[in-house]
Amino acid sequence: MQVYWTKINKIIQESSEVRTYLLDCPQDFTWEEGSHTHFALEGFNTGDKPNRSLIRHMSISTLPHEDAIGITTRIREQCSEFKTILKNLKVGNEVAIFKTHSNVPLKREGKNVYLLSSGVGLATIRPIVLDYLKRSDNVNRLHSLNIDSSKEFLFTEVFQSGPNKKFTSQFVDNRKDYYEKVKNLAADNEGLYYVVGSDEFLVQNIELLREQGIKARQIMLDKHEQQLTEFLSFDL
What is the mean pLDDT of residues 135-152? Predict the structure, then answer.
């Protein structure tokens, strides 16, 4: 396993509780849209075994052409040891990344693609949208729907509806409106549905999509194969 040590080159306060840490790109480090990585703080590998409290599984919110590895995360006032340390890091501090992989690259199958996310889950969705805006081949159209009860919606400069690119974006701040919109989107029984958020959020969305006749193979989750089976195996 290769561990890349790299420096924080910029910290962006996206909202009152959300920050993006932009990291320098190591020379041979590559990734694609929808990627996640293991993000670790100094000291995680100093003992006989990795200190898992200093490691988190994080989505990368940027694409390689942006020349930075973006890690976007919510840091509340009361937070874990990991988030407390992260909150106090400055530009120039070192962090580690390793085991980078994408479970949700953009499928180019000539279909409509629907991106359903909750809160900071939009960090996973952002690179997928950027990849589509850069090259829309074999995607009929792209639609993003995000729910964030804080009303501090993220990445609004990217998530703007663009009819020329066949990209539309919606933000809602309550569950009733969100699930009504998901139900309407699911009228497209040929579409592909990407769902990103907490496990509870995934289960609720999967149940609603399946009730509307969407098949398990049409639902994309940021989970490895074994977890996918657990989330998608139930029959209606």
Answer: 96
